[in-house]
Every structure is written in C-alpha cells, then in structure tokens.
Amino acid sequence: MSASLEIEENESWEYAKRFACAFGEFPPLFTAAIRAIRCAPKIIKSNDLQLIKKFSRDAIIFPIKVSPTFKSCFFAFAEESNEAGLALINHLTLTDLIDLFSPDEMSAAVALIFLHRFMKRRCPDEEWDRINHKLSAHLKIGYRVGKKIDNVGGGNGMFMAGLRILAQSFFLHFDEKGFKELRRFCEKKNYLFSPDEERKRWGCDHLQIASHLASLLGYGIGPRLAFGMYSSTSVDGAEDQDISENSELISKWRICMTLTEAFHAHGTAQRGLFMGQHVTSQVVTELESVAREAVVQGSGFDWINRKPGDLPTEIASFLGISTNDMASVHEE
Fold this sequence. Notes:
Elements: H1 3-20, H2 28-38, H3 40-44, H4 49-65, H5 68-81, H6 83-87, H7 94-98, H8 103-120, H9 125-147, H10 153-174, H11 176-189, H12 195-202, H13 206-216, H14 221-227, H15 237-245, H16 247-266, H17 281-296, H18 313-318, H19 323-327
C-alpha cells in the first residue's frame, strides 16, 4: 500500500470511528457483562465448558433481570432457537432460561438487543422498518451458518450478521436522504450491501463502523478483525501477537460473514469455494433451505422485536414481569 493510500485508508477508519462513537460510551451495565463473558477462560483460569457457562450466566443475568424487554427477547430467542429445550422446563425461571444458551449466544443477544433498541429510537420509522426486515433474515442466516463452522458458533455468527445491519443504521440516523439514495442504489443493482458506495458517500463503510462498535460493545480483537481494522492498531507488539494467535479464528469468522451474505443475497453459496474450509456441500444444501425460509418465506429471527406485552401471562409471571410492564409501550 502506498503512503498516500495508507493515509486515505486511515482517514476512512477515523470517519467510521466518528460514526460509531457519536453517542459516547455505551452503558457499562451491558459492556462489562459482555466483556466478562468474552474473557471468561482467562478470568476463571479454566477451559472447563460448564464452569465457563456458569460464569457467563452469572455475568449476564443482572442486565437481563432488571429489564422486562430483555427478558421478553431472551424468551422469544429460546422459542426460535431451542424450542425443544424450552419445552422441557416445567416451571420456568430466569436462570433456567439463560441456561438454555451458550456463552456466545448470551453475549450476542445482549449486545444486539441493546444496540437494536438504541438505534430504533434514533431512526425514522419507515426506513427502520425496512432495516428491521433485512435484520430479521440476516440474523437467522448468520446464526445457522455460525453453528456449522467449528469455533464460531451460532451466537457469534448471529452477532456478526446483526452488527452489519445495525451499523448501517448509523448512516440512516445522520443522513436520512443519503441513506435512502444508498438503499435505492442497492435495490437497483440487486446488492445486499455496497461498501464502495458507502465510502463514496460518507468516507467509510458499515464494516468499519461495525468493527468499532464491536470494540465499544465489549468484544475483542478477533471480532474486530473479522470486520476489518484500522491499520495503525496493529503496530503495537502486543496486538501483533494477538492477531497472530487469533488468525485462524479471524479467518473462520470472515468465512462465516461471507457465507451469510451469499445465502441472504443469492440463496446459495458457490459450491467448492469453501470446501475444505469448514463447510461441505451437504451443509450448503442445508443452509440454502434456511435462506429460503428466512428471505422468501419471511420466517427470519423476530425475537429481537419482542416486547413484554407479547408474552403469555403465565410466562411473564414466571420471569417476574409485572402486568404494568406488559401493558407499557415504553421501549427501554
């Protein structure tokens, strides 16, 4: 990369940072819990999966416990992702509910629910509805793709998918007219995303914003590099080592993101493109079916839109949600 292009690239990352950081730091109630889950093996000094899961549940339970909306979304997430496990619980408690999820699903759900609510309040309704429709399909596809790739998992696949869409909403908030023009451009070209067009309009793209948002939400260097990273951040020796140690994981995350986009945009992925790299032809066929359900039939993940009033009264009671909370239209 020439010096002039490197300066241009670094400036582009600075533009993205301004978008991502425009509202300041996110509440530590959420980010500290996410960071604790992401760092659980180091914190508890163990790779025992059961200990990690218990630690993760204990780290995340308070932000969920104090929010009727979060409880509602988690219950709906269980319905859509683990209905069989949910059916086995006779008298549901919040602890039982959270235990249905893996640590990566716990952190992804909290991060996405928070950012979804945060940006919904800041975007015009009509365009937000379009974003939300796209988000629903992308979440489900990302979740299912992630589950098919070793060491990625459904939660991480869903997080990457959701963060891409929600990162685009920052453009909508700050430039509604420009965002509508971008949407029409993509519709005309039959594109799901167009980072090049975003850079022409705003000097950066949604992947760069997503990289910064991942950091703000408590995720580490692996997720940030999956989206891309400002080149100067790798100068520090310690981060160079982190990048080297996480290179295989970063590669898998990127493959997951690429496959999710391909299935959403085209209903399939090129067979042979990733053969020998974590997916098989049989997996591609399975994911084609998921893509049809999510995109054509409109049965994506809708759990992120659930409200306390959507819950059955008995379930709300089990989860400690009052009738006042169920009747409220207030978005937390």
